[in-house]
Amino acid sequence: MAEAVANVARRINATVEEGKDSLDLSSCQLISFPEGVFKVLRTVSENIRSITLAGNQIKAISSKFFSTFTQLRELDLQGNILTKLPDQVGEMEHMTSINLANNSFSIFPEKLTEIATLERIDLEGNNITELPLEKLSTMPALKWLNVKSNPLSSSTQSALHSPYKFDILLTTD
Length: 173
Hints:
Distance between the termini: 42 Å
Order of helices and strands: HEHEHEEEHEHE
Number of helices: 5
Strand content: 5-15%
Largest sheet: 7 strands, parallel
Radius of gyration: 17 Å
Strand order of the largest sheet: 1-2-3-4-5-6-7
Structural class: alpha/beta
Low-confidence stretches: none
Mean pLDDT: 94
Shape: globular
Number of strands: 7
């Protein structure tokens, strides 16, 4: 465990000292976003454009995460155990890509449909049965939605055969 903490500290310090616009805390055995990171990164949080938290055991992301990293463009949360996102995710004015693949979502996080700049949503390998297709179809920037390996209901699967202005990746039987 001490090694994991040291690894996180090293990566955070590198982001601050090198003035990086990205933070990679993938595969760090995290169960949440470390509270202390907010303090360490407060001077550079406006510069952070990309955060990777893939391959951890994160159960929840706090609203503080989204209110701190307001300039975030890309967020990779694949391979965690998330079931929902806080409402504040809908206020992300610059986000273009979110990877939520291989988590534990059973309900599509509808607040994502409020992000006007969002181009890519990856929800492969979750437990989602329904999609808010009307809301998704009104997203101005959406180009790509991956819902492969989800137990989509037959009515949702039928609705997905209609033409949409974005690409939909599905598991075909």
